[in-house]
Input
Amino acid sequence: MKLSKRKEKILKAVVEAGMENGEPISSKTIQEKFMPDVSSATIRNELMSLEELGYITHIHTSSGRVPTAEGYKKYVQELMPTKKLTKKEVAQIQSNFTNKLVNLNEIMTRSAQTISDACNYASVVYMGGTGAIIENIKLVELSSTSKLVVVVTDIGVISEIVSLENTSQKDLEEAATILTKLFAGKPIEALEEERYLISQELIKYKELFTKIIFAIAGKYEKRPQIAVAGKEKFMDYPEFENIQKLKNAIKLVDSDEIINNTSDGGEDVEIKISVGDNDLSIVSATYKLKGNKTLSANVVGPVRMDYAKAISVLKEVSDTIKELTDKEI
Amino acid sequence: MKLSKRKEKILKAVVEAGMENGEPISSKTIQEKFMPDVSSATIRNELMSLEELGYITHIHTSSGRVPTAEGYKKYVQELMPTKKLTKKEVAQIQSNFTNKLVNLNEIMTRSAQTISDACNYASVVYMGGTGAIIENIKLVELSSTSKLVVVVTDIGVISEIVSLENTSQKDLEEAATILTKLFAGKPIEALEEERYLISQELIKYKELFTKIIFAIAGKYEKRPQIAVAGKEKFMDYPEFENIQKLKNAIKLVDSDEIINNTSDGGEDVEIKISVGDNDLSIVSATYKLKGNKTLSANVVGPVRMDYAKAISVLKEVSDTIKELTDKEI
DNA sequence: TTTTAGCACTCTTTGTGTTTGACTGCTAAC
DNA sequence: GTTAGCAGTCAAACACAAAGAGTGCTAAAA
Output
């Protein structure tokens, strides 16, 4: 339903007051600050109407109005001005990505930290879709007793030392070739599937393969990769002064709940906003990476978060990541 | 100064009451719980005496006694019973280390998490002394355009992909040999020293070397390696309900202050306890690793922490780490 | 029909005084 | 040296009043 211009203006005032300090705002203050041309009584009438529509509410009879989650939603969808980041802010974000990052895990960690710092809210970045896909397996001789197993995946390299005696350089090479042939293109979990352990191709290198599995096991996450940053930022907002609420917020960020909440994303960055569940709001930017993966960057903050800024930051970071991952080797 | 047996008993009662719930204890309660054979008046006299000695104090005239930092120290040094971990607790700790861990960084992370979970306080584990020492550098061909740089150090393996065309397998091997010869035994920071970049030995592989440096830069920490776990555990204790105190505690744990606070450690595990600075207590276990490194595992918690348990856990974990690192390849 | 002034009403916040109860500290007797 | 007993202190809990902020409603003005 379309609101009148005046109602929009008033709702905007209530929401923005809420965003600024989390405090209720009164009809008188609205009048003084935003609409000196009508009386506070008129504004009161409008406020009552907005309250009936469910956009704002009262804590008690004689307190000012605060926005409901619905009100925030309306604001986000229709009233919010877009916010352009300052050059300085963009530069600040970019500066975190100057190093040539090819390792996707690292990109995620860096992104989470960057987003959290830029917005001053917590941030969760995770990768969905297919997990790490094996590209190449190499075995390198370090000494007569120890070899290095290197598993190259599309999101990074896992390398681990194994102790292995009496294996010639030639054997290593052959084993690596077989392993690569067998596992290239498969998800990394495949390494742990029983059927390969007893397969014909690997029978000759069974001991070696067992050691490799043992070394690599647990070095990768089976679940979607996830990076969290800025959990302590919640402490900057009075709505989390209550230690229980703080705990809940942090728990949510650490849980899988956020992950399960997102769409698959399209080619382009898709912004989704969830307002007010569990006293938290989440702005998420999701899009497809190559290799059937999805990247989702999220800002998690109080309901009165600066949505416009969160969106701008997510877009900026997403664009940067896109550039980085597109020119990936 | 040596306290009388009775004073010791009373001080012990005051400290243990403080540990249990952080609440003051009254002369009457002490009498009822611990010394029914003397009157509360007698206990009051003793309490006054202990107060004069600086071991306990008053919040206000009519509140019970709480221990001072001095009192906690006295308790820790002279009155505390040693606490043996239950079999279950030991098993729980051990279970975190069953995987064969050879990467020191990983051991540290795992240790911090284990300690924090076992004690329910925050934990900081860090390595001092010399940083990572290069053991071996390998260059592996992945494809015609991309190669893998592997730097094996005594605390773990760093591997990174670099894009590099027109380099033959032979060149790679030769370059790796030269690099290993040049850098083996040197700290990893040496890779970034200018003088090597312009050195005679590397002149032929300057481009390759530059790329390697670029790829590896920032993958290791120059500062002592550090692992922190369980910051959120502070929230379980009412003394940190005040958000400012919570922030301070977390800030301290994230800062370098704890690191700079420890001795070099000896061959054996050396336990050090610091009570009550900034409303926090730290129990640290430090000892030498091979390769001139020092490992320090710390429990950081409220002043009323369970020191005996912290010590037991640190000892258990330290022993486990020692075993792991001694049999390192 | 919309806007406004004005007033009654509600509820929080702040302040004040009172009571209760938990302790201590002291004194005098044991 | 120990104890009983009592006065004194202070925090915590409660009740009450006053002040202030803000609304909702009504009736009049535009």
Q: What stands out?
A: The beta strands of chain B are 56-58, 65-67, 122-129, 134-141, 146-153, 156-163, 226-229, 270-277, 280-289, 293-302. The CA atoms of residues 180 and 302 of chain B lie 48 Å apart. Chain B has three domains: 5-79, 87-130+224-326, 134-216. The mean pLDDT of chain B is 88.
